[in-house]
Design goal:
By secondary structure, the chain is α+β, with helices and mostly antiparallel strands. It folds into three domains: 213 residues, Neutral Protease, domain 2 (Orthogonal Bundle), CATH 1.10.390; 111 residues, Alpha Horseshoe (Serine Threonine Protein Phosphatase 5, Tetratricopeptide repeat), CATH 1.25.40; 84 residues, OB fold (Dihydrolipoamide Acetyltransferase, E2P). 50% of the residues lie in helices and 16% in strands. The strands form three sheets. It has a six-stranded mixed sheet. It has a six-stranded mixed sheet with strand order 12-11-10-14-15-13, with no helix packed on it. It is elongated and about 125 Å long.
């Protein structure tokens, strides 16, 4: 009776969930109801593609920003309703692909996977080189650990410049005299490397010579695939395997059927779509390697420092994104951080996809240098003016201290006037006739100087200074009377006392005894 009851319970369990299994290696997840063999073969093909490309890039363990989910259906009838409009489509928290187990993975899908791996791992190379790499690796042939690349393309599959770029990389990958050094060539091209330098470092020939070798190869080659080193692993043992429950399968298929148009509300891309500060912060937590929420947060920031910090993070997470670098450079220049802005423009130039874009960015960098030079000139002028203002403030403060001390001393003397027994008379400033007005002219007569003072009556008065060192001066700026010869520009106020002794020879009304500049 117990055995019969247990059998009935097992039969009642849903077969739907048990039919779906997840197989995982690296960033690749294959979800399949097509059986064990097909899923492992597809995952093996993706893993070997990742390994071969990583070897060429000098990074054997390539990773991706998003896990890549391949949903593998058991036949065309099941696959049809879930087919995608393009090989790879964004899901809520993954990149999605779908196929069927009775047809090999299409080349367009393998191209798209290669492009994704390049974008997430490689330095920027010429666009034609990256496209040719994707075309080359779309021909990959995998049988467990035995791998070949470079199989001939179908007639008309590629044309023109794209076909020639494929021929070039096919030659480098399959011909023994080049294949051992192809990795050096690819590494030299990364980060906007020059073709001529890459050809010299890898093959000890100029780019022109390499192109002539490609032309000759294109005329005679049979374009056969050649073996390359594959990853050593056991597809039947080394993949992580997990049975899926019904809710997981339902959510997976719903994400697939949305076809990148909508995303689950609480998924990473769903949070990004809400575009609020809290949702973007959660999107960052959902995928810390993702640059886009950092960039969107920067657009919402009002503080220049925090904005620049967000943009720096976005650019560092997505170094191939020229737009991020340009936006960062613009923000840094607006904050007068010209040295940092110049570095960001250089990074933007390296990240440019085309020569035209690179030229435009280079011009923007030159414009920045002009703005930086103008800024530095203005800063030097501002510093000089500030230094002059500081000096004048110091002089004014010193003069104020002197005047305050004089006033205090005078107040003390006045308070004690007549109260001191047997006081001795104090001989202070010289006395004499007082004249006040505007000093309009100084005639230098050797050592003596003749001052012309325009009084309030409109009548000019000429007075003589016989020796500037022998007169009393009240001035915060100098203890001696210092005058420029000639008309005074600008004219300045002056108060003097003189002895009223006219001198016909010098045409003056008296000798100045005291000078004060009010």
């Amino acid at each position: 009776m117990l055995r019969r009851t247990l059998t009935l319970v097992l039969l009642a369990l849903p077969a739907f969930a048990a039919d779906w299994v997840e197989y995982r290696a690296g960033p690749f997840h294959v979800f399949s109801d097509a059986g064990d063999r097909a899923a492992r073969e597809r995952l093996t093909q993706l893993e070997q593609l990742r390994f071969v490309l990583g070897t060429l890039l000098g990074k054997p363990e390539l990773n991706t920003l998003w896990p890549l989910h391949l949903i593998l259906f058991s036949n065309q009838k099941e696959y049809g309703p879930h087919a995608l409009p393009q090989p790879l489509t964004p899901g809520g928290s993954a990149t999605l692909a779908a196929w069927t187990d009775d047809v090999p993975l299409p080349r367009d899908l393998m191209r798209a996977v290669t492009e994704t791996l390049l974008n997430d791992n490689a330095g920027r190379m010429p666009r034609e080189t990256e496209t040719a790499l994707s075309d080359l690796l779309s021909t990959i042939e995998v049988n467990a650990t035995r791998v070949k690349i470079g199989a001939p393309l179908a007639a008309g599959e590629l044309n023109g410049a794209r076909l020639r770029a494929w021929v070039k990389l096919q030659m480098l990958a399959t011909q023994p005299e080049y294949s051992g050094r192809m990795r050096i060539y690819i590494n030299n091209l990364q980060n906007a490397g020059e073709e001529d330098q890459a050809a010299r470092n890898a093959f000890d020939m100029t780019a022109a010579k390499l192109d002539s070798m490609v032309d000759a190869y294109a005329k005679t080659a049979k374009f056969e695939s050649a073996p390359v080193n594959g990853k050593a692993f056991n597809p039947n043992r080394d993949f992580i395997e997990k049975n899926l429950e019904r809710p997981a399968v339902t959510a997976l298929l719903a994400d697939l059927d949305a076809k990148g148009k909508t995303f689950p509300f609480d998924s990473a891309r769903g949070l990004l779509a809400q575009n609020t500060i809290p949702s973007l912060e959660l999107a960052i937590k959902a995928n810390p390697k993702w640059a886009e929420p950092q960039f969107k947060l920067a657009a919402l920031e009002t503080d220049p420092g925090r904005k620049i910090g967000r943009l720096k993070m976005a650019a560092s997470l997505a170094p191939r994104n020229a737009v991020y670098w340009q936006t960062l450079a613009t923000a840094q220049a607006a904050a007068s951080l010209y040295a940092d802005a110049e570095k960001s423009w250089t990074s933007a130039e390296r990240a440019a996809e085309t020569p035209a874009e690179r030229s435009r960015i280079h011009q923007a960098k030159l414009d920045l240098e002009d703005a930086r030079a103008a800024f530095e000139v203005a800063e030097k002028r501002r510093a000089r003016e500030e230094e002059a203002r500081d000096l004048q403030r110091a002089r004014d403060a010193a003069a104020a201290e002197v005047l305050a001390a004089q006033r205090a001393a005078n107040e003390r003397l006045e308070a004690r006037a007549g109260n001191v027994a047997n006081a001795v008379p104090w001989y202070g400033d010289p006395t004499g006739a007082a004249v006040s007005g505007t000093l309009t002219r100084v005639d230098c007569l050797g050592t003596p100087m003749r001052l012309t003072i325009q009084t309030s009556t409109g009548v000019p008065i000429r007075l003589l200074i016989r020796d500037p060192r022998q007169i009393t001066v009240h001035s915060a700026l100098s203890a001696q009377a210092e005058f420029a010869c000639g008309a005074q520009k600008p004219a300045r106020r002056i108060e003097v006392r003189h002895n009223s002794k006219a001198d016909a020879k010098t045409d003056t009304m008296g000798d100045i005894l005291l000078v004060q500049f009010p």
